[in-house]
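Folds abound. A case:
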Amino acid sequence: MAARREIDFIVGWFLDPLVYGDYPKIMKDTLGERLPRFTLLESQLVKGSIDFLGLNYYFTQYATDSLQPISTPPNIQTDPRANISFSRGGVLIGVQSANFVYYPPGLRQILNYIKDNYANPLTYITENGFSTFGNLTLAEALADQGRIESHCSHLSCLKCAIEDGCNIAGYFPWSSMDNYEFSSGYTIRFGLNYVNFTNPADRREKDSAKWYSRFNTN
């Protein structure tokens, strides 16, 4: 139930209105009057209005019931009443990167969940990537085997999801080159191509860029 609450607060919050014209029941029951209500006209306008789904996927986490008192005032972080973690019993769910733990089978799982619960919309994986630390030497940054393994594993699981019947139209790795990351600045790198942050004109292909190019042409 903790996992279901987290899913409804993260995924259902957006997809339930687009597919069914209203927020998930779990959200309505949990938030009460704090959650705005759709008018009949608003519900009719938003229901079925999705042309395609853009899904950003990076990681999967475990969820357990939260035993902490409800915060005052309540907030979106505590509303699902769940604790989330990358590990269980001291064992990581997947492979450690610079700022999270990635788990490729979770991509297949969430795509099947969307297929089974939201009428299998046309879906693009608009972001999926692997982070390394930003202060690596040039040689270390270019030899990014971990990023190759991550994209290869996720694409393998994506292929399985397609074979499961998920309606997938495309996959976009994050990102084409190292850049300023929203919450991490220049401390981590996601790019297939290296960028010298003190001289941005200096850009070089990483091993992952060469691999991805071969993957797309084979």
